[in-house]
Design a protein that fits this description.
Helix 5 links the parallel strand 5 and strand 6. The strands form three sheets. Strands 8-7-6-5-4-3-12-11 form an eight-stranded parallel beta sheet. Strands 1-2 form a two-stranded antiparallel sheet. Helix 11 crosses helix 12. With about 325 residues, the protein is of the alpha/beta class. It is globular. The two termini are about 20 Å apart. About 40% of the residues lie in helices and about 15% in strands. It has a domain of about 240 residues: Alpha-Beta Barrel (TIM Barrel).
């Protein structure tokens, strides 16, 4: 499913797109007035629960943001910690992001899950669903216990997420194991036969959720996505095998981690990036994406999003805040969204 959009600057017209859950007539070029998260054409939004899949099916690029932080950012004045309700209101106040990204469970699902679950509950109480604000989360590193990995994936799915991002992926076998953990036994997987609170956020009954919660594109009617990051020398060495695994929805170079991997300390004690090696690693992942017809993702900013789109990247994540908002709007303009 290779993307064929042309990159050009155009003015985004809200009337052309229907954002799932949007109030009719809202000006989607205004972040404060846009009510939905993912903007997709009406032909796809009628049947899809996960709007990211609808965008994939239309060959459109995807632009999302990290969820806002409960604590003040670096350099910002200290203030009271935001409540889950505060974070939900802040998230829903910006309507041009196609998804809500959370990386808090990368260091351990059990450690990060309680705060994430409280955030999801607050999002649901504020009116969000998978149709309007699909949830994308990082998984913890694979570790050495496959059963523990599968259980961690199940816990994230039970919380209502619709996309799981695998981190520090180094082999096709790891990916195959994780994909099986995302699928119920009725679909050939190993996911426990439970649903948690996921149906509530998806806006479905338990039985409807079980029917829809399968992995796309392995199941063309599935509503779950897998994202996979390659961010180590071992992963780069096996990136073609990883990209070839059926069911990988988006493949990413872990640009930040790879930057550290290709940096060294000079005699003055300064960190120096080998930019050529770093860029080569990024392009190695992109080449595998193109070879195996898998969408490729990148963590972009306003200074590089046009270049990355022209190279062939089609899924993007940005940090929460003005810089991220600017990048989302720039990307949507370049893509004609």
């Amino acid at each position: 499913m290779r993307f064929s959009f042309s990159v050009k600057m155009v003015t985004f017209t809200a009337a052309v797109y229907l954002a799932g859950g949007c109030a009719g007539g809202a000006d989607s070029s205004n972040p404060d007035e846009a009510g939905g998260s993912a903007s997709v054409s009406s032909s796809a939004s009628v049947t899809r629960i996960n709007p990211l899949i609808a965008l994939h099916e239309q060959g459109l690029p995807i632009f999302g943001l990290y969820a806002p932080s409960a604590r003040a950012g670096r350099g910002a004045p200290e203030g009271p910690q935001k409540t889950p309700a505060d974070l939900a209101a802040e998230t829903l106040g910006y309507g041009l992001s196609d998804y809500v990204f959370d990386g808090s469970m990368e260091g351990g699902v059990d450690r990060g899950l309680p705060a994430f679950t409280s955030f999801v509950d607050a999002m649901r109480e504020a009116g969000a669903t998978t149709r309007t604000n699909p949830l994308v989360v990082k998984m913890q590193e694979f570790g050495t216990d496959p059963a523990a990995t599968a259980e961690a994936i199940a816990k994230e799915l039970d919380a209502g997420v619709s996309t799981i991002m695998l981190v520090t992926t180094e082999s096709a076998e790891q990916v195959e194991h994780a994909l099986a953990a995302m699928r119920y036994a009725s679909n050939g997987g190993t996911r426990p036969d439970r649903v948690g609170t996921a149906p509530a956020y998806w806006g479905l009954s338990d039985s409807e959720y079980r029917e829809k919660a399968d992995l796309w594109p392995l199941n063309p009617d599935g509503e779950l996505l897998n994202w996979t990051i390659v961010e180590s020398h071992e992963g780069l060495a096996h990136v073609r095998e990883i990209a070839a695994v059926p069911g990988v929805g988006v493949l990413w170079p872990g640009a930040g981690t790879l930057r550290g991997l290709f940096s060294s300390t000079n005699e003055a004690g300064e960190r120096v990036l080998d930019e050529a090696a770093w860029e080569n690693a990024i392009q190695t992942v992109l080449s595998a994406c193109k070879e195996f017809d898998v969408p490729c993702g990148f963590p972009s900013n306003a200074s590089d999003i046009q270049m990355r789109m022209e190279q062939g990247f089609s899924v993007f994540v940005m940090g929460w805040g003005d810089a991220g908002f600017e990048t989302v709007q720039m990307g949507r303009g370049l893509a004609g969204r």
